[in-house]
Specification:
Elements lengths: L3 E4 L2 E4 L4 E7 L8 E7 L6 E7 L4 E3 L7 E6 L4 E6 L8 E8 L6 E3 L3 E6 L1
Parallel strand pairs: 2-11
Antiparallel strand pairs: 1-3, 3-8, 4-5, 4-9, 5-6, 7-8, 9-10, 9-11
Length: about 120
Protein backbone atom coordinates (compact mmCIF):
# COMPACT_ATOMS: atom_id res chain seq x y z
CA UNK A 1 0.00 0.00 0.00
CA UNK A 2 2.58 2.53 -1.10
CA UNK A 3 1.21 6.06 -1.17
CA UNK A 4 2.80 9.32 -2.28
CA UNK A 5 0.80 12.40 -1.32
CA UNK A 6 1.62 15.83 -2.75
CA UNK A 7 0.75 19.18 -1.24
CA UNK A 8 1.70 22.82 -1.65
CA UNK A 9 0.30 23.64 -5.07
CA UNK A 10 -1.72 26.74 -5.76
CA UNK A 11 -2.03 29.97 -7.71
CA UNK A 12 0.87 32.41 -7.76
CA UNK A 13 1.93 35.45 -9.74
CA UNK A 14 4.84 35.22 -12.16
CA UNK A 15 8.08 35.68 -10.26
CA UNK A 16 6.66 34.16 -7.11
CA UNK A 17 7.57 30.97 -5.27
CA UNK A 18 5.94 27.75 -4.12
CA UNK A 19 7.22 24.77 -2.15
CA UNK A 20 5.76 21.38 -3.00
CA UNK A 21 5.92 18.47 -0.57
CA UNK A 22 5.59 14.74 -1.20
CA UNK A 23 4.95 12.57 1.85
CA UNK A 24 5.57 8.84 1.46
CA UNK A 25 3.77 6.14 3.42
CA UNK A 26 7.01 4.23 3.89
CA UNK A 27 10.68 5.03 4.25
CA UNK A 28 11.93 6.89 1.22
CA UNK A 29 14.95 4.61 1.36
CA UNK A 30 12.55 2.20 -0.36
CA UNK A 31 12.93 4.42 -3.42
CA UNK A 32 16.47 4.74 -4.79
CA UNK A 33 15.20 7.58 -6.95
CA UNK A 34 12.42 10.05 -6.18
CA UNK A 35 11.38 13.15 -8.02
CA UNK A 36 8.85 15.38 -9.64
CA UNK A 37 7.21 15.35 -13.05
CA UNK A 38 4.68 17.74 -14.54
CA UNK A 39 1.94 17.43 -17.12
CA UNK A 40 -0.36 19.76 -19.04
CA UNK A 41 -3.52 18.68 -20.90
CA UNK A 42 -2.79 16.60 -24.00
CA UNK A 43 0.90 16.16 -23.20
CA UNK A 44 3.10 13.46 -21.69
CA UNK A 45 4.49 13.84 -18.22
CA UNK A 46 7.86 15.58 -18.34
CA UNK A 47 10.72 15.23 -15.89
CA UNK A 48 11.22 18.22 -13.62
CA UNK A 49 13.79 16.96 -11.11
CA UNK A 50 15.03 13.76 -9.46
CA UNK A 51 17.05 12.96 -6.36
CA UNK A 52 18.73 9.68 -5.39
CA UNK A 53 19.16 8.10 -1.98
CA UNK A 54 22.70 9.49 -1.87
CA UNK A 55 21.59 13.00 -2.79
CA UNK A 56 22.49 13.20 -6.46
CA UNK A 57 20.13 15.49 -8.37
CA UNK A 58 19.08 16.05 -11.96
CA UNK A 59 16.97 18.87 -13.37
CA UNK A 60 15.20 19.64 -16.59
CA UNK A 61 17.00 22.42 -18.44
CA UNK A 62 13.91 24.59 -18.22
CA UNK A 63 14.02 24.71 -14.40
CA UNK A 64 17.75 24.74 -13.67
CA UNK A 65 18.67 27.63 -11.42
CA UNK A 66 15.06 28.17 -10.37
CA UNK A 67 13.91 24.88 -8.80
CA UNK A 68 15.58 22.86 -6.05
CA UNK A 69 14.73 19.29 -5.08
CA UNK A 70 15.58 18.00 -1.61
CA UNK A 71 14.68 15.15 0.73
CA UNK A 72 14.18 14.74 4.47
CA UNK A 73 14.70 11.06 5.19
CA UNK A 74 13.50 11.33 8.80
CA UNK A 75 10.16 12.73 7.62
CA UNK A 76 9.85 10.45 4.57
CA UNK A 77 9.32 13.58 2.50
CA UNK A 78 10.66 15.01 -0.75
CA UNK A 79 10.38 18.71 -1.53
CA UNK A 80 10.46 20.89 -4.61
CA UNK A 81 11.26 24.54 -3.99
CA UNK A 82 10.12 26.55 -7.01
CA UNK A 83 11.37 30.12 -7.37
CA UNK A 84 11.02 32.71 -10.14
CA UNK A 85 7.94 30.95 -11.43
CA UNK A 86 6.84 31.55 -15.01
CA UNK A 87 3.43 31.05 -16.66
CA UNK A 88 4.92 28.15 -18.63
CA UNK A 89 5.49 26.34 -15.32
CA UNK A 90 1.71 25.93 -15.03
CA UNK A 91 0.95 22.20 -14.82
CA UNK A 92 -0.11 19.37 -12.58
CA UNK A 93 2.95 18.28 -10.63
CA UNK A 94 3.33 14.61 -9.70
CA UNK A 95 5.56 13.02 -7.10
CA UNK A 96 7.45 9.97 -8.34
CA UNK A 97 9.28 7.06 -6.75
CA UNK A 98 11.31 4.30 -8.39
CA UNK A 99 11.37 1.01 -6.48
CA UNK A 100 14.46 -0.87 -5.39
CA UNK A 101 15.74 -2.66 -8.46
CA UNK A 102 14.11 -0.12 -10.76
CA UNK A 103 11.19 -2.38 -11.68
CA UNK A 104 8.23 -0.32 -10.47
CA UNK A 105 7.13 3.29 -10.68
CA UNK A 106 4.91 4.92 -8.05
CA UNK A 107 2.99 8.14 -8.53
CA UNK A 108 1.16 10.61 -6.35
CA UNK A 109 -2.24 12.01 -7.25
CA UNK A 110 -0.87 15.32 -8.48
CA UNK A 111 -1.12 18.91 -7.30
CA UNK A 112 -2.04 21.85 -9.51
CA UNK A 113 0.38 24.74 -9.92
CA UNK A 114 -0.92 27.78 -11.78
CA UNK A 115 1.27 30.80 -12.50
CA UNK A 116 -0.48 33.95 -13.65
CA UNK A 117 1.08 36.68 -15.75
Amino acid sequence: QVQLVESGGGLVQAGGSLRLSCAASRSIFSFPTMGWYRQTPGKQRDLVATITSVGSTNYADSVKGRFTISRDNAKNTVYLQMNSLKPEDTAVYYCYGKSIGGSYDYWGQGTQVTVSS
